[in-house]
Amino acid sequence: MRKPIVAGNWKMNKTVAEARALVAELQPALAGVSGVEVVLCPPFTALAAVGAALHGTDLGLGAQNMHAEKSGAYTGEISAGMLRELGCSYVILGHSERRTLFHETDELVNKKAKAALAAGLRPIVCVGETLAEREAGQTEAVVTAQVGGSLAHLGAEGLLRTVVAYEPVWAIGTGRTATTAQAQAVHALIRRLLLNMAGGSVAEAVRIQYGGSMKPGNARELMSQPDIDGGLIGGASLEAGSFAGIVRGAVK
After folding, report:
1. Of 181, 201, 236, 251, which one has the greatest count of Cβ atoms within 10 A?
2. What is the pLDDT of residue 131?
């Protein structure tokens, strides 16, 4: 059975002091929860502080982005090795905001995923369609292209260390949420694509998160679906009670 994974993407929120305070609230809120992998992804500036606060706990540390190269003249960028040195085990790649605002392509996301895996990080690779694409009936084509391009040539071993996050762009930060049936349908599509890429055993093992305005009230229903293995949580991860409620909703 796949172990659910819930990751909190704090985006460009929380100072170092605020990050420490949130972790201090989260730890008792999550006490006694088992059977769910929990990862916190603060901004770069708070990674060291959050990593120190998580030391000795079961909570994992992740980054929100990284550069594809090991080092070089890339002002303002962060490498996979730098993230590993700070104690990160995961990194979010290809988030819709990176694809939309910073024009990241499937090819670039793929390069980053390969670099992350080479450095010992586990990529959380995001895919998903816009509202216009969904209304035009292009969801399957868009997600198929993104999965194929972003996960190309990772190999079975690389895919087994990768998490895929389906985030319908139209449901991020809008208060809109895909219905349970809509979310499950795309997760099932992604698993079929993984089956074609790497075979049944790999496809059955890869975890696929849902990343579209998941809240405590809908988390259990969404994550009870056969192909939804957790959540990539944005706004609701910034408040300890709501994030803990989502995590508890992932308990099988």
Report:
1. 236
2. 87
Using CA atoms, how far residue 96 sits from 74, 101, 144, 186, in Å, is 22, 8, 15, 16
User: The tokens of 173 are what?
Assistant: 């930060």
- Catalytic residue from among 37, 67, 95, 97: 95
> Which residue bears the tokens 């006490």?
31
**Minimal CA–CA distance to 250: which of 226, 221, 227?**
221
**Residue 129 known to be catalytic:** no
Give φ, ψ of 23 to 5 degrees: -60, -40
Can you read off the two tokens belonging to residue 12?
């460009």
Contact 235, 173 (CB under 8 A): yes
Query: Helices 139-150 and 106-118, interaxial angle, to 10°?
Result: 40
Active-site option among 37, 97, 104, 167:
167
Q: What is the dihedral of CA 21, 22, 26, 27, to 10 degrees?
A: -40
The H-assigned helical ranges of the chain are: 16-29, 47-54, 80-85, 96-101, 106-118, 131-135, 139-150, 155-160, 180-198, 200-205, 216-223, 240-249
In order of their start, the domains of the chain are 5-249 (3.20.20.70)
The structure's pTM equals 0.97
Sites in the chain below the pLDDT cut of 50: none
Is 167 marked active-site? yes
Tokens standing for 164?
A: 């895929």
